[in-house]
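Quick start: read one record
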Amino acid sequence: MPIAQLISPQALDLKKDQPGLVILDCRYSLEDPDYGQRSYAEGHIAGSSFADLERDLSGTVVKGVTGRHPLPEPEDLIERLQAWGINADSDVVLYDDGPGAYAARAWWLLAWLGKRDGVFILDGGLKAWHAAGLPLSLDAPGSERGTFTGVPDNALILDAEALAQRLGQPALTLLDARALPRFKGEVEPIDPVAGHIPGAQCAAFTDNLDSDGRFLPADQLKQRFAAKLGNRSPTDLVAYCGSGVTACHNLFALCLAGYPLGALYAGSWSEWINDPTRGVATGE
């Protein structure tokens, strides 16, 4: 079974009453951190639980040390997954109402802990759900506590020191998921330093999607990432972004294209710039 799977609104509508199915609403806004919880309370796909990026899908921020969305402690994340009713054999559907970055973060965290079968992202998110004329619900799910117990795969993560040691190595493909103006250092709306990690290529995560917000076909994604990889092995690919969220979108898209699951520099740009001795590049 492929590690990256999409599900259409119509297919989810048929599946949503399946026993044991877990649906997670991952809506979030950087500008309004309570937006997701508030939106969930106003209506969500029937049977879904709410997964908050900061409280559930991230760990504790240490100013001047971590990035903006550090990884949660594995035991804390496992507790949340169990509270949502997830078992080792559960089907899990993830969605948000944007381009899918927050759903992709949840997907990557599950993969990191070893849950790699039966995990789907709703293609097109809530926008596609609404476009299909499907309803929302106000009901809270009544799922039983799950029994999932995962083990982190540390081969999937790099810290700043490990990445710094690999910079300049010919085998490394380092992909930055932020938009090109941020990558080039022309604008920086969030972090105090503009630019990118030296040697990185811009691979804006929104380029994984079509005009309707759905993922491009696998062959088009393959072509996109093949151009970034060149003759380098995909096993030496590392993804990053501003805080370790939108990079997961690229990692999901890479898997859709048939590539193996790559590594995440989870601290990403917001962690990298905490140390002024780390290199900063601008331009393309």
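Residues 101-112 form the longest helix (12 residues).
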